């Protein structure tokens, strides 16, 4: 909690707008990553690959729509009872965008993007419990992606 807002994150219009900024940055990172994967792909795309890319593209559009809704409805999307500090919310969403950018396999982004979508939807509806759950989900997926990047320990 900050001195400006002792109640915690998402309790002011500017904090909701900051979350919308981070969600937009995550959508941008996902878009760049999808284009990178498509350009680097050799040969035909399998049905499973096509389905994954379509689903992630749909998720990108949904992230953008939810971010835009947060901008438009910031006053109504306040979650004053949320005790999570704004710095944690912004740090997690920024980390998610960075992980999407450098993720090893684009398919690993699915759970992370799902968590961001849950966060955006919960913030839009002012759902305190949903925001907390979504923050935990994003943090779990970031940790999971990081764990996949570590080389296996040698005995």
Structural classification: mainly alpha
Oligomeric nature of the chains? single chain
Helix and strand string, N-terminal first? HHHHH
What are the segments in which pLDDT stays under 50 over at least 5 consecutive residues? Answer: none
Number of helices: 5
Radius of gyration over C-alpha positions, nearest whole angstrom: 16 Å
Q: Tell me roughly what share of residues is in helical segments.
A: over 70%
Largest sheet: none
Strand content: under 5%
Distance between the termini: 44 Å
> Any idea how many domains?
1
Give a written overview of the molecule.
This protein has 155 residues and is mainly alpha-helical. It is elongated. The protein has one domain. The longest helix has 28 residues, at 13-40. It contains five helices and no strands. The chain starts with 12 loop residues before the first helix and ends in a 6-residue tail after the last helix. Helix 3 (86-102) runs antiparallel to helix 4 (109-125).
List the defining traits of the structure above.
elongated; mainly alpha; 155 residues
Task: Reconstruct the topology from this structure.
Blueprint: H1 13-40, H2 47-72, H3 86-102, H4 109-125, H5 128-149
Helix pairs in contact: 1-2, 1-3, 1-4, 2-4, 3-4, 3-5, 4-5
